[in-house]
Design brief:
heterodimer; A: alpha+beta; Alpha-Beta Plaits; 3-stranded mixed β-sheet; two-stranded antiparallel ribbon; 24% helix; globular; B: mainly alpha; 59% helix; 0% strand
């Protein structure tokens, strides 16, 4: 008889077993003898736990005065320069956070967004199941189920979520948004899902490579050959609030 | 007796004829008048239909949309058939300047029918009413 565990402590051994079992079953079903690469999910296939999307952000490369990632996210998802409501209530899917060492005066600047936790506190507390984690590691809000209670906003240790207070117009086709729902970084899930055959990029990582300083690397944490996995293996990195044991999908360096 | 039956049958035939013809005419009028949208009109001229027969789409489109919605949101399946984005890209109309007209504005494909049927259309509180700008 095993020791009874409390409901709120996830059983990681069981999760690992289930993940392995489903992955094995999936591989057998998709096509025997064919290994499906992580970044080429056909549009008609569901996402699977074989992939776990994540980002690595190097604070040493991130410049305090650069906002390429924030601007591109706002443009991609349509929350930049909102004209309605009060500025302090405007949505902020990603923001630059500065940390100043009071002893030396050194300033570290990094973008902070949804960290796409494996054990996401937002999904834990959501009363309707609207906050959920997709099998490929992306934490999302199902806005059809969200009742706007904002419990998830209180639960999130990273202050990553926003509530839409005003009636919106001119939303973008790939990012539905509306009054009364909570929203946050979706790791550009649409771009990833529609990137069949190519390596996907999030808007922020693409902008950081192009207009910024190349501080953000996006990729599959489960693929040992991906750039992000290689770097995480060779170089030291950390999670924000690692003490919470959330196993975040977004990792930082030199913070 | 036979004479009376004949009169009754004739009367029924006249009545039915008078009723059926205008009904068919009305149905044809709806098809002609509705703003199908630029791409959908072109497809109709080529003899192509929607993703399902028109009668099925009229009565069942909300079920297709709801089912596809859950597959997309929960499992990341983004096929074009039954996707709201694809409905809009086909059924949206353009004004004379070539700009898209909101599909939920008066006389447009979604709005016109929903107004006729008195069914509130709330997709567009959150979803885009036009395709991505050209």
């Amino acid at each position: 008889m095993s020791k009874p565990t409390s409901n709120d402590a996830p059983d990681f051994a069981r999760r690992a077993f289930v993940a392995k079992a489903t992955t094995a079953a999936g591989a057998a079903v998709v096509a025997p003898g064919l290994v499906v690469t992580a970044f080429a999910k056909p549009a008609d296939q569901p996402v699977s736990a074989k992939t776990r999307w994540g980002m690595l952000i190097d604070a040493a490369k991130c410049a305090a005065d650069c906002t390429a990632c924030v601007d591109s996210c706002g443009d991609q998802h349509g929350w930049r320069d909102e004209s309605v409501g009060r500025p302090e209530q405007h949505a902020q899917w990603i923001r630059k956070v500065g940390l100043r060492d009071t002893a030396t005066g050194h300033v570290t600047s990094v973008p902070v967004m949804c960290q796409h936790c494996e054990t996401a506190p937002c999904a834990d507390v959501c009363p309707t199941g609207a906050s959920y984690r997709r099998p490929d590691g992306i934490v999302l809000v199902n806005m059809h189920t969200c009742i706007g209670c904002r419990y998830c906003m209180m639960a999130c240790p990273y202050k990553a979520r926003s509530f839409v207070h005003q009636t919106l117009t001119d939303q973008l086709p790939d990012t539905p948004r509306g009054k009364g729902c909570v929203e946050s970084c979706n790791l550009c899930a649409t771009l990833i899902d529609e990137s069949s055959g190519t390596a996907p990029q999030t808007a922020c990582s693409a902008a950081c490579q192009k207009d910024g300083n190349g501080a953000i690397v996006f990729g599959d944490l489960n693929d040992p050959n991906s750039e992000i996995s290689q770097r995480l293996k060779k170089e030291p990195s950390e999670q924000l609030r690692a003490d919470l044991g959330l196993n975040t999908g977004v990792r930082y360096q030199h913070v | 007796m036979m004479q009376q039956v004949r009169y009754v049958l004739l009367a029924v035939a006249v009545l039915l004829g008078g009723w059926i013809v205008p009904t068919q005419q009305a149905a044809a009028d709806i098809d002609e008048d509705i703003a199908l949208g630029a791409k959908a009109s072109a497809a109709k001229e080529r003899g192509e239909g929607c993703v399902e027969p028109t009668e099925v789409m009229r009565s069942q489109h909300m079920k297709f949309l709801l089912h596809h919605r859950d597959e997309t949101v929960l499992f990341g399946i983004r096929t074009k058939k039954y996707s709201l984005k694809n409905c809009i890209s086909c059924h949206v109309s353009e004004d004379q300047a070539g700009n898209y007209i909101r599909i939920n504005s008066e006389g447009q494909f979604c709005q016109e029918c929903h107004e006729e049927a008195a069914v509130h259309l709330d997709c567009f509180q959150c979803h885009a009413t036009t395709p991505r700008k050209k």
